[in-house]
User: Fold 3'(2'),5'-bisphosphate nucleotidase 1 from Sparus aurata.
Amino acid sequence: MSGSPAVVMRLVASAYTVAEKAGAIVRKVLHSGELGIVEKTGANDLQTLADRLAQQSICASLYRRFPKITIIGEEDLPAEEIKEDLIENGHSEEILQKTCPAEYSGLKEEELVVWVDPLDGTKEYTEASRLLHHPTGALTPHKGSDTSQLHSTALWLLDNVTVLIGIAYEGKAIAGVINQPFYNYQLGSGAELGRTMWGMPGLGAFGFTLKEAPGDRRIITTTRSHSNKVVTECVDAMEPHEVIKVGGAGNKIIQLVEGRASAYVFASLGCKKWDTCAPEAILTAVGGKLTDMHGNAYRYDANVKHMNSAGVLATLRNHEYYVSRVPQSVRQALKTD
Ligand SMILES: Nc1ncnc2c1ncn2[C@@H]1O[C@H](COP(=O)(O)O)[C@@H](OP(=O)(O)O)[C@H]1O
Ligand SMILES: [Mg+2]
Ligand SMILES: [Mg+2]
Ligand SMILES: [Mg+2]
Assistant:
């Protein structure tokens, strides 16, 4: 490679390190026990101090380096001076060494739209915190006790949490970074937590080992905390061998690319563009697909509606099969934009 790296590669390289910093913020707020929970549209739509600080950190850090990009974040926050210790100036040298796919090498800052979900799986994050900071002391469990069970549940819930930074060009998700702040929780208290995955269609996906779910089983992953009758009906219509209910859109895509699930099925509105942009880029980079329940692609232009009104259907393989199983009643309830 000659000359300076492509703008989009520099942006992905920065987003990688910025997502790591956001992941560290998410861990720190959890340990403080002071979550500062705010209800947005209702009890299942929450915002915590971690969502706020992580978004401020991501947006301010990226804007400082790339002043002309458009960033759209999940949280509505007042414009205010960001504390310097929230700024991340680093980048991943490894990403800068990669060759940018030719079609993206000439993209300009002002053509890029960045979709930020500072904390995906907020519901699970708050539930985990409640368990960990429970008066019976689940933070310091004794083996075999009830608190040990609470502790395990809390850690499992935390594994649902991710930080999502997606990059779009001409309405398409062209790069994505996912940080999973509590990854490796199974290794115990001394372990270093967290990992970062990233991907770009045309270049590949990194930070995890791609695995396909068993071809002879339909394992469906769906929402844990935002279900309703239509969501359940649609999952049942897939005739699943197994259903895995977990939190977070990012986490459900991780289930797909690591071979634990064959399809992510969410026949409801609720997910937004910041939930799907980064996951879609990584999934597409390994040959998968993310669409609405009709099999139509979502667009990520700066001016699109934030809500993914026609649901989310994502697979690594056999997308058409799952589209074909969506019941007529669901198709009617969820219209493509
Ligand atoms: N009915 C709803 N209301 C608000 N947010 C919803 C929702 N259904 C899904 N979402 C959002 O979509 C993401 C994935 O949902 P789920 O975990 O239920 O699969 C979560 O993102 P956040 O945690 O970033 O808000 C969640 O809040
Ligand atoms: Mg939210
Ligand atoms: Mg989200
Ligand atoms: Mg969020």
Observations:
- The chain is about 35% helix and 20% strand.
- The longest strand covers residues 112-120.
- Residues 38 and 47 are 5 Å apart (CA to CA).
